[in-house]
Design goal:
The complex is a heterodimer. Chain A has twelve helices and no strands. Chain A is mainly α. Chain B has two domains: about 250 residues, 3-Layer(aba) Sandwich (Rossmann fold), CATH 3.40.50; about 120 residues, Coagulation Factor XIII, Chain A, domain 1 (Distorted Sandwich), CATH 2.70.50.60. Chain B is built from eight helices and 20 strands. The two termini of chain B are about 35 Å apart. In chain B, about 35% of the residues are buried. The chains are: A mainly alpha, B alpha+beta. At the A-B interface, helix 2, helix 5 and helix 8 of A face helix 1 and helix 3 of B.
Chain lengths: ~260, ~400
C-alpha cells in the first residue's frame, strides 16, 4: 500500500518535494513572488468584476465583521488553487517521470505525493501572507490557522486521491489531461469563490456550491478564514468522509495501474 | 536503478532466484490512444501478445558473476527489468535475498537545474538510500567523480564526461550486495573506465554478486564465472562462460556471414579469380581460431595465355586498414606463364589475428603491378574467433610471453 512505502522511503519523498520547490521558479526574476502574484492578480481582476461590473456586495464576516470582497475571494481561492494546481502538476509529473519510471524501480506514487507536499508548503506561505494582509484591515486571524491546517489535511487527502487516479489514467489516455482542464474550470465556477452562495437565487446552484466536492471545502475555508468561525460538525464530517473515500479510490486505481506504467510509456 | 533490501534472517543459497518467469507485451494493431477510440472499440484494445520471456528459470549464487548474453530483442533487457522490479512478470516469481541495486541507465533521475550536490542526494534516494547513509558517503562519491568545485554547479553545465562520472559514482556507492548492470561498462574516457573496472573487481573480491546483461561476448568471457544465453525469450544455453560465448558467437556469426560487404570488381578480365576459399585443416571454413594454420585458395581462369601474372591478397580490418598484403612477386613465386584454369594456395601458419571480422581482397596484375587483370574488392569476409590468444584490443597478437620478477612478487 502506498502509505507504507511512502514512510519507508520518506527520504526520497522529502527530496522529491524539495526538488519541486527548488526548481519551480527557475529562470524567473521574481521567483517565489509569483506564487503570491498569481492569486493577487486574480483577486484584483475578480474584485473589479464582482464589485464594479456586477455591483455585488461582499458578505459580512459572521464573527470577524469583515466586509471585504478581495479577502473573501482569497479565502476561497487559495484552497481551491491548492487542489487544482496539485492535480495538474501531478498529472504532468507522472507523465514527465517516464524516463525515470522506465529505468528505475521506485514507488511511483511519490511523484504525486511530492507535488502535493510542495503545494502544501506553497499554500502555507500564502496563508501566512494572507493573515498579515488581513492585519491591514484590522483583523487578527492567526489563531484560525490551526483549524485551517486541519482542513488542509482533509483537502490534501481529497487532492491526493484525485491526483492519483487522474495521473495514473493519463498514462494510458492523454485525454485525461485535457479533460481535467475543463473539469477544473467547472469546479472553479461551481464553487462559491467569485460569488456568495446566499446571494444566489437558484436553489440547485446554491446547493452545489455549498456541498459540491470543492465547494464544500471552499465554504469551510471561508468560514474559518473570513468569518472567523469553526465550520459545523456536519461539514467537517462530510468533508472528512468524502476526502477519505476519494483517497482510497484514487490509491486503489493508482496501485492497480502503476505496475504497467513502465511498459506503457 | 533502485535499491531493495529484501533480505531476511535465513540465508538461502541463492542471491537471486528466477523461477518460470514469463513476460508478454501487447502489440497494438489499432492502438486506442484516445478515450474516444477506446470507447468506440467497446472498451477494448485490439492487440497481439508478444512473448518477450517464456519460462525463464535460473539461480544466481551469492558471490557469482553471471553474464546474460543474447542478440537484440532476445529478451535480456526485459529480463533485467523484471529482476530490477521495473516490469512485472506475467507469470513466475523473482526472489531477491540480497540488498539489490540495478544500474540500467546512468543518471536516470538527474535534474538538469539542480546542482551536482543536490542531484547526488536525490539520485541516491531514488536508488533507495537513506539520508544519513548518503551523507556518510557523500565525500567518497564526489571524490570518485572527481568534480572538484563543480559539484555546486547545476548539472546542465556539466560535460557529458562529468555527468557520467557523477552518475556512476552515485550508483557504485549505493553499496549493493547484488548489482544488476545493463551495458554500461563502456562509459567515460579510458582513465575513468579503468577506475570503474577497478571498482567492479573490488566488488567481486568482496564476495558480492553481479548480474551483467550485454551483447558483448568478450566482457562475459573475461568477467563472469557463469553465462546464460538468452534466445527469443528462452534460455538457450547455460554454463561455463567460455563455452556459452563460443556457441553464441558461432551461431550469431553463422547467421550473418552471407550479409558481407558488396564485392567490387575491376580489371580487363583476361585472367579472373573465380572463387576464394579459406581452408583450415583441409576443410573450407568461414571462420577459424586465432593461431590456426590458414590456407587461402584462389581458383583462377586465364582466358588467354598470360605472362608473369602476379597474384596478391590483402587482408584488412573492417575499418579498412590493411593488416597484411602478400603477393607472389615478393615471395618470388610468380609463374612465368599461365593459361587455362588453376589454383593458388597461400598458406599462413599460426595466424595471429585476434577475434574480429576481417575482409579479404584479391588481385591479379601484370608483373609491373600496373596492369590489372582482375581486382576483387571485398572478395570475402571472414571471422576469427578466440583461440590461443585471449587478447581483445588491436588486430593481431604478437604471442607475448610474460615474465614478472622482483623481490616482492609472489606467484599466483
Amino acid at each position: 500500500m502506498s502509505i507504507r512505502t511512502a514512510l519507508a522511503q520518506r527520504n526520497l519523498l522529502y527530496l522529491l518535494s524539495q526538488k519541486e520547490l527548488r526548481t519551480r521558479y527557475r529562470k524567473s526574476i521574481l521567483g517565489w513572488a509569483w506564487s503570491l502574484l498569481n492569486p493577487l492578480s486574480q483577486m484584483i481582476i475578480f474584485s473589479i468584476i464582482f464589485l464594479k461590473v456586477f455591483d455585488g456586495n461582499a458578505p459580512r464576516g459572521a464573527a470577524s465583521g469583515l466586509d471585504n470582497f478581495p479577502l473573501y475571494f482569497l479565502s476561497g481561492l487559495l484552497p481551491f488553487q491548492f487542489f487544482s494546481i496539485s492535480v495538474t502538476a501531478a498529472i504532468g509529473n507522472v507523465q514527465g517521470g517516464a524516463s525515470l519510471i522506465k529505468k528505475v524501480a521506485f514507488p511511483h506514487e511519490h511523484l504525486v505525493f511530492s507535488i502535493v507536499i510542495a503545494q502544501l508548503v506553497t499554500i502555507g506561505i500564502e496563508l501566512v501572507v494572507l493573515s498579515i494582509s488581513f492585519l491591514f484591515f484590522g483583523y487578527f486571524m492567526f489563531q484560525w490557522l490551526l483549524p485551517m491546517a486541519l482542513l488542509l489535511v482533509l483537502i490534501s487527502l481529497f487532492t491526493t486521491g484525485v491526483a492519483l487516479a487522474l495521473s495514473a489514467a493519463n498514462v494510458f489516455f492523454h485525454d485525461i489531461n485535457y479533460l481535467w482542464g475543463i473539469v477544473a474550470q467547472l469546479m472553479f465556477y461551481s464553487s462559491p469563490i467569485i460569488f456568495v452562495p446566499s446571494q444566489v437565487p437558484s436553489e440547485a446552484v446554491r446547493f452545489i456550491s455549498n456541498w459540491g466536492p470543492t465547494g464544500s471545502f471552499v465554504r469551510a475555508s471561508q468560514r474559518i478564514l473570513y468569518d472567523g468561525q469553526w465550520p459545523s460538525i456536519e461539514r467537517w464530517a462530510y468533508i472528512a468522509a468524502f476526502s477519505m473515500a476519494t483517497f482510497a479510490i484514487g490509491a486503489w486505481i493508482f496501485n492497480k495501474l502503476s505496475p504497467r506504467f513502465a511498459e506503457e510509456f | 536503478m533502485a535499491l531493495h533490501d529484501r533480505s531476511n534472517g535465513a540465508s538461502p543459497n541463492y542471491a537471486l532466484r528466477v523461477s518460470e518467469v514469463s513476460k508478454t507485451f501487447r502489440i497494438h494493431q489499432e492502438r486506442a490512444s484516445s478515450l474516444k477510440a477506446f470507447i468506440a472499440a467497446g472498451g477494448r484494445n485490439r492487440y497481439e501478445e508478444f512473448w518477450a520471456l517464456r519460462d525463464v528459470s535460473f539461480d544466481v549464487e551469492p558471490g557469482q558473476a553471471l553474464g546474460i548474453i543474447g542478440h537484440n530483442g532476445s529478451g535480456k533487457s526485459t529480463l533485467l527489468k523484471c529482476m530490477a522490479g521495473i516490469l512485472t512478470p506475467k507469470s513466475g516469481n523473482i526472489e531477491v535475498t540480497k540488498r539489490m541495486a540495478a544500474l540500467l541507465e546512468l543518471g536516470a533521475g538527474f535534474h538538469q537545474e539542480l546542482s551536482g550536490r543536490d542531484n547526488v542526494f536525490l539520485n541516491a534516494a531514488i536508488l533507495g538510500m537513506g539520508r544519513k547513509e548518503i551523507a556518510k558517503r557523500f565525500d567518497e562519491i564526489v571524490d570518485f567523480a572527481d568534480l572538484g568545485q563543480f559539484i555546486d554547479n547545476p548539472v546542465k553545465t556539466y560535460s557529458s564526461g562529468m555527468y557520467v562520472r557523477l552518475a556512476f559514482a552515485v550508483a557504485i556507492n549505493v553499496d549493493p550486495e547484488l548489482l544488476l548492470i545493463d551495458e554500461i561498462l563502456a562509459v567515460g574516457d579510458v582513465t575513468f573506465q579503468a577506475k570503474c573496472m577497478e571498482k567492479f573487481v573490488d566488488f567481486r573480491q568482496q564476495g558480492r554478486t553481479l548480474v551483467l546483461v550485454t551483447h558483448d561476448a568478450t566482457t562475459v568471457r573475461n568477467f563472469c564465472d557463469r553465462a546464460i544465453w538468452l534466445d527469443h525469450g528462452s534460455v538457450r544455453m547455460e554454463g561455463n562462460p567460455a563455452e556459452v560465448v563460443d556457441q553464441y558467437t558461432e551461431t550469431m556469426l553463422g547467421a550473418e556471414t552471407s550479409a558481407g560487404a558488396e564485392v567490387g570488381r575491376r580489371g580487363d578480365g583476361k585472367l579472373t579469380i573465380d572463387t576464394v576459399e579459406l581452408i583450415v585443416s583441409g576443410v573450407p571454413v568461414d571462420r577459424f581460431h586465432t593461431g590456426d594454420d590458414l590456407t587461402v585458395r584462389l581458383h583462377f581462369t586465364a582466358h588467354e595465355p598470360i605472362d608473369k601474372p602476379v597474384f596478391a591478397i590483402n587482408i584488412a580490418s573492417l575499418g579498412g586498414a590493411t593488416i597484411t598484403a602478400p603477393s607472389s612477386r615478393q615471395a618470388d613465386k610468380t609463374p612465368a606463364r599461365v593459361s587455362g584454369s588453376g589454383s593458388v594456395d597461400i598458406l599462413m601458419e599460426n595466424v595471429p589475428l585476434i577475434a574480429q571480422r576481417y575482409v579479404l581482397h584479391t588481385e591479379v596484375t601484370g608483373f609491373g603491378r600496373q596492369h590489372v587483370y582482375d581486382h576483387l574488392q571485398n572478395a570475402r569476409t571472414f571471422d576469427v574467433v578466440t583461440g590461443t590468444s585471449r587478447e581483445t584490443s588491436g588486430v593481431v597478437t604478437l604471442h607475448p610471453k610474460w615474465t614478472i620478477t622482483g623481490d616482492g612478487v609472489e606467484t599466483a
